[in-house]
Amino acid sequence: MMISSTKKVDVSYKPVGLFDERRLEKMQVVVAPNAVSGSIAVAQEIAQLIKDKAAKGEMAILGLATGSSPIKVYAELVRMHKEEGLSFQNVISFNLDEYTGLESNNPESYWYFMHEHLFNHVDVKDGNVNVPSGLMADSELNQFCIDYELKIEAAGGLDFQLLGIGRTGHIGFNEPGSQKKSATRKITLDHITRVDAAPSFHGLDYVPRTAVTMGVGTIMKAKRIILLSWGDNKAEVTKEMVEGPITKDLPASYLQEHENVTVVVDEGASKDITRFETPWLVEPITWNEELTRKAVVWLSAAVKKPILKLGTKDYNDNGMSSLLAQEGTAYSLNIRMFNILSDTITGWPGGKPGVDDSRRPERAEPARKRIIVFSPHPDDDVISMGGTLLRLTAQGHDVHIAYQTSGNIAVADHDAIRFCEFAQQFNDHLGKERTGQYDRILEEIKNKPANGIDAADVRAIKGLIRKGEANSAARYSGVKEENIHHLELPFYDTGKVKKAPLSQADVDIVRDLIEEIKPHQIFAAGDLADPHGTHKVCLDAVFGGLEELKEEEYMKNCNVWLYRGAWHEWPISEIGMCVPLHPEELDRKRQAIFFHQSQKDGVMFQGNDDREFWQRAEARNRGTAECYDNLGLPEYEAMEAFRQWDFYKKELV
Ligand code: F6R
């Protein structure tokens, strides 16, 4: 993939508004197949700039960003330096921002980040690296900010600025309210930004409240800008930035006025953009089955009519007349779509024995299936598919649950202290001699510095707490004791929020379990677009195991179903199997989630949603049922949704 600047004449890209009026985007948007290939293309553009400048004996002035978005760009630049001799001797860099109050050796400081990901691994001259200081006394700060601007100007201005985008729409740390002409200054971080940063800081309380950032005006002066946006959770803000009005409430929208900016997104981040979300509204469509389903479901919601009542005018008024022309009549299209959607509903997620299964999501035979449910954290199984789990065990299947990680990082210190004291006092009660071990562990917890890493014993206690909760919930759901597996994949246990990358050791563990059980069905958490989270790594471990086993005879008989994590649900038009829950089943599901006591009442990684996990799960499952109901399908209390994964073709079915 090549990204080409709008300034150069590039026939493959038609600037919006000039040639392609159907698009609503006001900036150049390039959709990369995935974050890795997108990052490599961006790194190539940066490398070319550095080389072009070097050839002319000039310095390349780079504006750099931190955060998760640019990590793979830096990794590729480091690779190019090591393997292809790309030199950074002619690079002067200016970073966008820095938290206040963090020493440069603090792993959460942006100074540390940049050295860890880039500067320590390339030949850039120390004196050419500039990261704003967050340690200035207030009395000196103003002058520091002026000097930062002057230094950029003296270097000749930024040739290139790399950006990420925050969920608030910030670029750098220019939060909503920032003015277009703003310069480098100290700002107060938005609450959402702090919530997003909380996991790396081990809790919201430890996230700095202020930062020093280049201004919007500083960024806009760059000669070339690339903004990176990866993953579903950036989809909404990305659409607003590229299609919405220019407003101080979403500072990234100012970029619409820059003459040489490209937004590079992956599929997840692009999905709300009109051209992808509802393409029939902006351009002629070649209709396929997937788009037809999506469009009909969308139309039903848009005109607030059940599918069977959609009329010719509804289709014509909403950019879908070509679909009608292709399908014949609204009536026949309605019936066809209604049947497809209603066939996704089944109360027999493991297949209904002894019936015609030609229009059911799962096969009838074998009647009693061996099933593995992979759960990334110890509570994802019951949160995401607790009702289905209850059905699978009640319907007589041999259900195994494989907890992929210990989830120890999400246990609060006060819980670890409580359990440690309990163990200590129970030992006293049994008359066992005190070894001082417990006192040492308690001291370790109490003396841990803010934002520090837990000692191995403390991690073990926290892991045991979650193990006990998971075992209780699984037993309650009808899973046999011997079918509960705690895989403790090694990538997870760093003690930090940042995990190690997936390794063969992780894949081996998953593969061995699949090999041992030879399942007819596998359920796994399908957070495909989450670029760096634990769920994605856990899914990659499952995919790795499937890849190694796919030629085995027994695997030809195995269906893989993906559920979504705690936050999102599959879009209605994409659901392949929808399992209805009776109100009493929903109560039992809630009960199973309750066993995860350490994850109740203000958990460590709450996110920007202060509902309890059971509340989120119920709202989500009720929401799915309501959508089905609104489409004119049967009305249920709640529904859990799945999509099938074809591991031979490596695609969603
Ligand atoms: C980082 C910065 C921020 C981030 C933004 C996205 O230097 O200024 O604007 O680019 O918060 O962060 P990630 O990439 O972690 O999603």
Describe this structure in words.
The chain is of the alpha/beta class and 653 residues long. The chain has three domains: 24-275, Rossmann fold (3-Layer(aba) Sandwich); 284-342, no CATH class; 370-411 and 461-652, Rossmann fold (3-Layer(aba) Sandwich), CATH 3.40.50. Helix content is 39%, strand content 13%. The chain is built from 21 helices and 18 strands. It has helices at residues 35-55, 71-84, 110-117, 138-154, 191-197, 216-220, 235-243, 267-270, 274-277, 289-302, 312-317, 321-327, 330-342, 380-394, 413-429, 437-447, 456-476, 504-517, 534-549, 583-594, 613-630, and strands at 28-31, 60-64, 91-95, 97-99, 129-130, 160-163, 185-188, 210-213, 225-229, 261-265, 370-375, 398-403, 484-486, 521-525, 559-563, 577-581, 638-646, 651-652. A hairpin with a 4-residue loop joins strand 17 (638-646) and strand 18 (651-652). It is globular. Mean pLDDT is 90; it is low at 6-22. The structure holds fructose -6-phosphate.
Keywords:
653 residues, alpha/beta, Rossmann fold, 3 domains, eight-stranded mixed β-sheet, seven-stranded parallel β-sheet, 21 helices, 18 strands, globular, binds fructose -6-phosphate
